[in-house]
Design goal:
Elements (H helix, E strand, L loop, with lengths): L2 E5 L3 H8 L6 E3 L13 H15 L7 E12 L2 E3 L5 H11 L3 E12 L4 E13 L4 H11 L18 E6 L10 H10 L6
Parallel strand pairs: 1-2, 1-3
Antiparallel strand pairs: 3-4, 3-5, 5-6, 6-7
Helix pairs in contact: 3-4
């Protein structure tokens, strides 16, 4: 069985992958994430997931390499990680009372055969109406400035939602585990 490699420096993706109980290593891919001309956000995430996996294939020639990328869409436009408190406030104000779509692209590349599997996993999040006070309390407690949409699903972010719709809530955190398990089984890896 090839070794498993997570092509990411994300502690959130690492924590998710640990749930499967499989040994793996992590390495950060160094890729250009600039969108191509006329590339949709969904196309961008798929390309980046594959590019992240391929960027490490030469260094790890006998591995199953997991690449993932995520975009949050609001009114058809990408919403990035806020980085600052002010940007997080603005993002949550825009999301208040609305439904946003997360699209998480997942790639599993077998670096020995150059065979890859690539999917996009959509997930819709409906926010409840958020007062400025609610937003401020939430941001002071959670400080999700490194998370697209300014929330952490695995933390207090759940308190901001009215409903969730999708096949795999792990995709909100950045790694759709249900699809990943299918991909690993396709590569002959038996999971419990």
């Amino acid at each position: 069985m090839p070794d498993l490699l997570l092509a990411s420096s994300s502690p959130y993706r690492r924590t998710l992958l640990e749930r499967l109980g499989l040994p793996f290593i992590c390495a950060a891919p160094d890729i250009d994430e600039t969108p191509a001309a006329n590339e949709s956000p969904e196309q961008l995430t798929q390309r980046l997931a594959l590019d992240k996996a391929r960027a490490l294939a030469e260094r790890y020639p006998q591995h199953l390499i997991i690449g993932s990328d995520q975009v949050l869409l609001l009114d058809g436009q990408s919403v990035s990680k806020p980085g600052t408190h002010a940007a997080a406030v603005a993002q949550l104000q825009r999301c208040s009372g609305r439904t946003v779509r997360f699209t998480t692209a997942l790639c599993l590349l077998n670096s020995a055969t150059d065979r890859y599997q690539l999917i996009s996993e959509p997930f819709d999040v409906s926010f409840r109406e958020l007062s400025d006070e609610t937003i401020e309390r939430y941001l002071q407690q959670e400080q999700p400035y490194d998370c697209a949409g300014s929330f952490r699903m695995e933390g207090l972010g759940i308190s901001l939602f009215r409903s969730l719709r999708g096949d795999d809530p792990n995709s909100l955190i950045g790694l759709p585990l249900i699809r990943l398990c299918e991909m690993l089984r396709n590569e002959g890896l038996e999971l419990p």
